[in-house]
Write a structure and sequence with these properties.
Helix content is about 35%, strand content about 20%. It is an alpha/beta fold. It has two domains: about 200 residues, Vaccinia Virus protein VP39 (Rossmann fold), CATH 3.40.50.150; about 60 residues, Helicase, Ruva Protein, domain 3 (Orthogonal Bundle), CATH 1.10.8.100. The strands form two sheets. The protein has a seven-stranded mixed β-sheet, with helices on both faces. Strands 1-8 form a two-stranded antiparallel sheet. Helix 3 links the parallel strand 2 and strand 3. Helix 6 runs parallel beside helix 8 and helix 11 packs across helix 12. The structure holds S-adenosylmethionine.
Length: about 280
């Protein structure tokens, strides 16, 4: 067994050796909790024959845990300073390939080069939502997404209609996947410690959406309008969709216009989509 990177002293030693400081702007909070790392690896359910895409390997902490399952790891890191660090810390793991680039810009299918893969990451928090939405909306051949995110974002991802956490992110995540919170992770599980509590979230990608809709773009346009003005009644908020006769539309969908968008289920958003402009 090789020395494990997931440790406060080892992490500080690696940073010192390479004369580096964690870059806050890039969301660099390195994992130092072995039990959290094990929980992530376990939730991902990886083994030899699997391929995993890791976003932001940092100094190689989670990458090492993933590599030790015997799966193929492709890890995309934006910070050029970390590329030589990773070459050193992951030296000897011939199942790891590091790619220098921006996860929001690269062609992921081509970069990974496998017909199916999983996504596992301790995400940089300044771009959590764009990364998750990209993975889901592009319909990449992913079965499961296991990521560390801010607890507040995890709660929005799993939120049910009616509460303050329920919003456009909840609808999108639950349309494409079945999300569940694996565990909460306190700030002292990272070096340096972030300002917020984190959570590991697992999203099992659905083979088929849970509702049938005629027009996906329209569905998300309606969702955006409904949550764009959370405090407004639906009869007002839906004006942003450009629909002409909103009361008649709401009646066709069987939805009370006095309700607020944040109370609508996926099924009700689907009903609005399928009766739009008819
Ligand atoms: N995986 C490591 C760990 O668990 O300790 C580091 C996780 S750290 C929270 C996030 C990493 O994402 C950093 O290494 C950061 O440089 C990298 N990163 C930030 N923006 C990125 C982007 N657009 N594309 C790829 N990596 C990015």
């Amino acid at each position: 067994m090789r020395p494990q990177i997931v440790d406060r002293e080892v992490t500080m030693h690696i940073l010192k050796t390479f004369h580096l400081h964690a870059d806050k702007k890039l969301g660099q909070n390195f994992l130092i909790s072995p039990s959290t790392l094990q929980a992530i690896v376990h939730a991902a359910g990886l083994g030899p024959g699997d391929t995993v895409l890791e976003v932001g390997p940092g100094i190689g902490t989670l990458t090492q845990g993933l590599a030790e399952t015997g799966c193929q790891v492709v890890a995309i890191e934006l910070d050029k300073r970390l590329i030589p660090v990773l070459a050193k810390t992951l030296d000897g793991y011939d199942n790891v390939r590091i790619v220098h680039g921006d996860v929001l810009k690269l062609d992921l299918l081509q970069t990974v080069g496998a017909p199916r893969f999983q996504l596992v990451a301790n995400l940089p928090y300044y771009i959590t939502t764009p990364i998750i939405l990209r993975m889901l909306e592009e319909r990449l051949p992913i079965d499961r997404l296991v990521t560390m995110v801010q607890l507040e974002v995890a709660e929005r991802m799993v939120a049910k209609p009616g509460g303050k956490d329920y919003g456009a992110l909840s609808v999108a995540v639950q349309y494409y996947s079945e999300p569940s919170i694996v565990m909460e992770v306190p700030p002292n599980s990272f070096y340096p410690a972030p300002a917020v509590t984190s959570a590991v979230i697992r999203c099992d990608i659905r083979k088929k959406p849970p509702v049938e809709i005629t027009d996906e773009r329209l569905f998300f346009r309606i969702v955006k309008a409904a949550f764009g003005q959370r405090r407004k009644m639906l009869s007002n908020a839906l004006r942003a969709t450009g629909a002409s006769d909103i009361p008649a539309w709401l009646e066709r969908a069987g939805i009370d216009g006095n309700r607020r968008g944040e109370t609508l289920s996926l099924q009700e958003f689907a009903a609005l989509t399928n009766t739009f402009g008819h």
